[in-house]
Design goal:
By secondary structure, the protein is an alpha+beta fold. The protein contains nine helices and six strands, in the order αααααββααβαββαβ.
Length: 232
């Protein structure tokens, strides 16, 4: 009975549990920030990436000890599996990058997923202080630098992208007229067929500081064939 128990729980079991839990907490903090901002990859995604990366690192460190002890000619590189994690996580990050009417969104979330994978690897290697410090840096970057960045993009330098989901027969010229009535300059218009008869119309404009978005969206929603209006 003891032999069977030892097969399931070895000397490194509790160390592994601690590292997985730390990876869960740290990656969850970053994911929670993304969840609050309604990004495509949020709380659960970041936790899965962080814990999964930590698990791969733990596998690389402790998963092959029995083979090394049993066979003298066996050699292994503990960095081999983590290197595949770092390169492979890019595919998941690419899935969060979307294009809306010429505007690319999701780059920051893709970068946070890549960073969380690195956090998982670092925690799996037992570098707790580095992991906690890096988590704080990432959170500060996501929360505070976003507001700091907006200070330099005011005054028309930033673009507003309005997404209109519509049924067939929507007069595009009327939509443009409503936007121009709000003293907004239309920079780009892109129409994409979503599914069935629905279309997504992305309109990029130069916003003004005193823009009443609620009034603008109400005016656009009042147009025939408009299903929904949102900001991207």
């Amino acid at each position: 009975m003891n032999a069977i128990f030892e097969d399931f729980i070895d000397d490194n079991f509790f160390l592994i549990i601690v590292r997985v839990l730390i990876a869960l907490v740290l990656s969850g903090l970053i994911g929670f920030e993304r969840e609050l901002k309604n990004h495509s990859a949020g709380f659960r995604t970041h936790i899965l990436v962080g814990v999964g990366a930590c698990l791969m690192m733990l596998l690389s460190l402790f998963g092959f000890e029995a083979y090394i002890d049993k066979y003298d000619n066996v050699r292994f590189d503990p960095a081999r599996i983590p290197s595949y994690v770092i390169s492979g996580i890019g595919f998941l990050g690419a899935g969060t990058i979307m294009v809306y009417g010429g505007t690319i969104r999701g780059l920051t979330t893709a970068a946070s997923i890549w960073a969380v994978a690195g956090l998982g690897l670092v925690v799996g290697a037992g570098m707790y202080a580095v992991a906690v410090f890096t988590t704080l840096i990432i959170l500060l970057s996501l929360v505070f630098l976003n507001n700091f960045e907006k200070l330099f993009t005011r005054g028309g330098k930033n673009s507003l992208v309005v997404e209109i989901v519509s049924y067939p027969g929507l007069p595009i010229n009327k939509v443009v007229s409503v936007i121009e009535e709000s003293d907004l300059k239309v920079k780009q218009v892109e129409v994409i067929k979503v599914e069935n008869d629905l279309r997504s119309i992305f309109i990029k404009v130069d916003p003004k500081e005193d823009l009443n978005k609620i009034k603008l969206f109400e005016s656009l929603s009042a147009i025939d064939a408009v299903k929904s209006v949102s900001e991207r």
